């Protein structure tokens, strides 16, 4: 991986680890701060709200800033937020520190994705996105376990200190290796806002929301499915989640390459694979070996779809003002995650059972696939009318 892309990937790894590790260290945070576990859980909620609401606003406010100084500034603020968390004298300051960190999350991811796509030849954007997004995979399979390990041996403050140190290394690599003019800043705030009125951008964001809701309707309740339905021991679930994580790493890289070759056909096919994997997982969950194989397939399909979802915004629908659209799409990921977790819980409250919850995730993936298929067919019709090869003239479509 080229050093500039590696630097961006390390930024994503740092931020992703900080977002995800909090769930594993909540018990010690609650105990040390004399608060309930439910109150400690609000640290997760506050972070998510900061990403969804604050992220696009920060992106809009910084739309005219040069990309390299912007990344360095955001990383500096992120480091400050984690240092503040590490030294927080109490819960209110810790909450403020999490909100500060969250305000950098969405814009930093969006800018890293846009810059990464500018560093590669045309037609390779999705692969560049997937390489940067590997940071999220590594945050899941490496960053979170190491953060929890630090918490267990040295306390939760050590976890935040480690995130801050890693982020400082990432910022240093950005300063050393990322070209200052990696991507031109051409879009004013009004142009970035205008892109959001594009129907095709709105549909791309809608596909992201539904696809992520599909994933997290099922993923949120994987552990009880594996223990209560498949009959695995609780200790085995950790290893099965590692199987899922390895599948997600492969899926990220495969999805980027497929999207580079044929973006919308790949997106349709991967969403169909995701729907199939979830429906089959629900159907064969009591069969342990089949369950293991489908956990891997689920991980592959989940992360294979992510580069295509971002590349659709970058290369097909956002034109010369992609940063805010990408930031909104990142917010859409979080909206889908929250919505899927809520839907799965609501279905369980209705007494549907864990297998039907996972099947509902498959149904949502099918809905996302149908929307993507409609966009593929629309692109091809527009290309034919423009006299261009299918899929090469998305700009011919009306806003």
TrEMBL record:
The chain crosses the membrane at residues 34-58, 70-91, 97-120, 132-150, 156-178, 203-225, 237-255, 262-281, 287-305, 317-344, 356-377. Residues 4-378 form the Major facilitator superfamily (MFS) profile domain. Keywords: Cell membrane, Membrane, Transmembrane, Transmembrane helix. It is a multi-pass membrane protein. Gene3D superfamilies: MFS general substrate transporter like domains. InterPro entries: MFS, MFS_dom, MFS_Efflux_Transporters, MFS_trans_sf, Tet-R_TetA/multi-R_MdtG-like. CDD domains: MFS_NepI_like (cd17324). It is found in: Cell membrane. It comes from the Bacteria. Its main location: membrane. This is MFS transporter. It comes from Streptomyces caledonius.
